[in-house]
Amino acid sequence: MIKHLQLKNLKAWRDSGSVRLAPVTMLLGSNSSGKSTLLQSLLLLKQTAAAPDRTLHLNLGGDEANDLVSLGDFDAVLAHGAAPRQFEIVLEFERPEGERVRHGRFACSYGQTASGAVVVLALSLSTVARQFRAVRRERGAYAVWVDDEPRPRGKGPQLAPERSMAFSAEAIALLGPDGAHLQDLSLALRRELEAIVYLGPLRQRPARDQVWSKGMSGAVGAEGQQAINALLSDALQPGAGQGAVLRSVSAALQRMGLADRIEVRQLGRSSRYELLVHKDGVDANLRDVGVGVAQVLPVLTVAYCVPPGSTVLLEEPEIHLHPLAQAVLAELFAEVSQQRQVQFLVETHSEHLFRRMQTLLARRQTTTAHCQMLFVERQGANAVLVPLEVDEFGTVRNWPPRFFGDALGEAREQARARAQRMREAAGG
């Protein structure tokens, strides 16, 4: 699980400070406030770790088929007026390894070469007891440092970091017995990034039917394009737990009032299948029901099919849902994170989702340690993060004014207008 995140000079963030990320973290704020950049920074690292070119320092995107995010070039990412011209990403994580939990910290600052490429200026990988650093020197050479030793273990261009998070084979060999410890730490970080799953705000419209690829992958895709295949795999692949995801998604849809259940049905004797939605005694193809069902289906599918230990990044999971369904989403995030050990980082504009999370706190169905609510606002050109102070009764002590509108003010204005019209009617 990712425990803390910090951004410096990255887009609108001069310095986010160390942001605590809970098992369920909700990001709220106005449009273009900087919320998405917090999630994008993790996606940058994830797609860099997956890059086929191990000498790449940071993959800012551009490959629409494979990249999760595309942020342009160095100048587009660097905060306006940043001096010196460099930005930094820091994250802390915990990852179970057998009987113990590995605590790791990654910190990397990036600059620009004369040719315009993004380059690592300084990389630090550390645990509670050990620290390994690679620092860029002149002409592309790097010095490798261990702990607080007064001198570097070695210098040279062959010691350049790989994919932002790994030391080169030459650096590992140089460190001798310490190299194995560093390799374990790099591997734990890589697995943490590989465990990130992203579902964006724009989900593809589902096909009326499709061929089951017979794969076991539970990936739904950044636009939810593989959600139906993930459900087909769950329902049709023999083995322990067959159909468990489909049943869980059905139960969630029922709680939301969107469907009684869903069902996978083969079309004749062909290899094509459709997803049926049962509601009030009527069964219909997923394509023929309200768009809200199709839009939330990837959200529910990813929640129940990702492996334990995953971190799920969700943007606007509530789109096209009625208020009750949005509120139930909050319950599902709290429950699934506890039951399946899945972390949810949710960017949302939903008042109903947020209010239900407050209610869960008041009911003691979750805790402030398990659920973190963050508000992002702009102060001039800079993004500022405000952790909302929520007590055990769900009351927010430092709620930013008028973000969800002014419900009491609207009610007062309606009463004033009603009284005015009544006076006018009586006078006439």
TrEMBL record:
Q: Which InterPro entries match?
A: ATPase_AAA_core, Bact_Antivir_Def_Nuclease, DUF3696, P-loop_NTPase, P-loop_UCP034888
Top-level division of the source organism's lineage? Bacteria
* An annotated Gene Ontology molecular function: ATP binding
**In what residue span(s) does the DUF3696 domain sit?**
371-414
Span of domain ATPase AAA-type core: 24-102, 268-353
PANTHER family hit by this protein: ATP/GTP PHOSPHATASE, EXCINUCLEASE ATPASE SUBUNIT
This one is known as DUF3696 domain-containing protein
